[in-house]
Amino acid sequence: MLLKGKHIVLGVTGSIAAYKIASLASMLVKKQADVTVIMTKNATNFINPITFEALTGNKCLVDTFDRNFQFHVEHVALAKLADVFLVAPASANVIAKAACGLADDMLTTTLLACRCPKIFAPAMNTRMYENPIVQDNIKRLRGYGMEIVDAAEGYLACGDTGAGKMPEPEVLFEAVIKALTPKDMSGKKVLVTAGPTREKMDPVRFISNHSTGKMGYAVARAAMMRGADVTLVSGVTTLQPPAGVKTVPVVSAADMASAVKGEADAQDIVVMTAAVADYRPAVTADEKIKKKDGELSVELERTEDILAWLGANRREGQVLCGFSMETEHLMENSRAKLEKKNIDMIVANNLRQEGAGFGTDTNVVTFLAKDETVELPLLSKEEVADRLFDFILEREKNRTK
Ligand code: CTP
After folding, report:
1. Which superfamily does 7-180 belong to?
2. CA 3 to CA 35: how far, in whole Å?
3. Would you call 13 helix, strand, or coil by DSSP?
4. Which residue's CA is minimally distant from atom 18 of ligand 1?
5. Distance 305 CA to ligand 1 centre (A)
6. Has residue 67 got a pLDDT over 60?
7. Which whole number is the average pLDDT over 178-201?
8. Active-site annotation holds for 116
């Protein structure tokens, strides 16, 4: 998602984690956002405002009565401009002030004048974070509709280990994107499968495929950003599950089948991006298979087709979407799967096409429904995921017209 035309205000308070906001500001600017940083006086002890000015190209604001500024009546003008306001790191002090509506500096005055989504990322020592007063203040902010990015656990600057660590800039970046994304899927339950399955031969070997899970994780993330309640059933990958998504880790096709069956009935939309193994070793050896002279043959048996099971057991109104990866006869083969598995649509891609396939950040796909075909150009997997839900929602709207 490009952030062109979006104005993001970052409120930085006095915590050692303030330095991490430089990297967040840079990530947002790279996505073409217009970023203004407001610092409390204490924050300037940890990081110099010039750092933020260099990164954002905008003046970094500290004092409410700075005459030398681009906006007229600064805090109000900036508040009107803001599309999202993130306070990070948020000290116990700024949380308390915000919870009471106090406005005694540039950060808190602007915050009070803002009507856009507001996010807080608390950062402090565990003893302060766990203090019931701080927790009550956080609860109050939530009650006012503000988003809280929960503090992480870890090694803190004071030498203690515990809760109170500000999450990494990547997590804050995701929170900003979520705040900016229209919630056109809220109330919907979405199940996504992703990654490869592993079919065990013996205690040291398995049969699998090249799937990395990138496409499925992008699909789960897109639905979550748009407000859906998302469950991600994932084979073994190296990816970090998107925050705010319920992730169910599985290993084999049989594990995936039972996880999906357990969740299926409650879902409005199911997207099967997983590269489920079609075959598994008929026998799993208890001990390591030792090499011998001559060839070795392994007998394989079929795994259950999860998508076909979903098609046969679907709930009224449920949308089922499969993925189809081919090296030839893409359309004929994909259309055949659509019919055979009794599903609503399939996302077809050709492994041989440049920019499509395993492990890439891009994909070239065609959406295939019984009565509609949409060919998409080369897009990032994030964009493909968004287009997929646009397609599903649009078809749903036309059906209920
Ligand atoms: N799928 C599934 N269960 C399986 C195998 C595949 O649910 N045991 C799903 C995949 O997640 C994907 C779709 O079915 O959404 C792919 O269809 P499939 O016919 O299995 O594709 P291929 O294995 O590529 O087909 P073929 O072997 O016929 O080329």
Report:
1. Flavin prenyltransferase-like (3.40.50.1950)
2. 10
3. coil
4. 324
5. 7
6. no
7. 97
8. no
Q: What is the mean pLDDT of residues 375-391?
A: 96
Superfamily per CATH, domain 189-285+297-399 = CoaB-like (3.40.50.10300)
Q: Is the dihedral of CA 354, 360, 361, 364 positive or negative?
A: positive
Rounded to whole angstroms, the Cα distance separating 215 from 198 reads 18
Which residues make up the CATH 3.40.50.10300 domain(s) of the chain? 189-285+297-399
DSSP 390: H
Residue from 77, 42, 4 nearest 69 by CA = 77
Instruction: Point out the ligand 1 atom lying closest to the alpha carbon of residue 325.
Output: 24
Ligand 1 shell residues, CB under 6 Å: 253, 272, 274, 276, 278, 303, 305-307, 322-325, 337
Nearest protein Cα to ligand 1, atom 25: 324
Largest CA-CA distance found in the chain, in angstroms, rounded: 86
Q: What atom in ligand 1 is closest to the CA of residue 346? A: 15
pLDDT in tens, 345-372: 999 988 888 888 888 899 999 999 999 9
In this structure, which amino acid lies at residue 298? V
Q: Which atom of ligand 1 is nearest to the CA of 308?
A: 7
Pocket test for ligand 1, best of 207, 250, 278, 279 (most atoms within 8 A of CB): 278
pTM of the model: 0.92
Whether residue 7 is predicted with pLDDT greater than 80 in this model: the reply is yes
Average pLDDT score over residue span 388-395:
98
Reference 195, options 220, 164, 163, 223; nearest CA is 220
294-332 pLDDT per residue, tens? 999 999 999 999 999 999 999 999 999 999 988 889 899
Q: What pLDDT score was predicted for residue 259?
A: 98
Q: Which two tokens stand for residue 368?
A: 């295939």
Nearest protein Cα to ligand 1, atom 23: 278
Catalytic residue among 60, 114, 158, 321: 158
CA-nearest residue for atom 16, ligand 1, is 324
Task: Evaluate if residue 127 carries a pLDDT over 60.
Answer: yes
Distance in Å, CA 163 to ligand 1 centroid: 43
Q: What is the pLDDT of residue 70?
A: 58
**Where do you find CATH 3.40.50.1950 in the chain?**
7-180
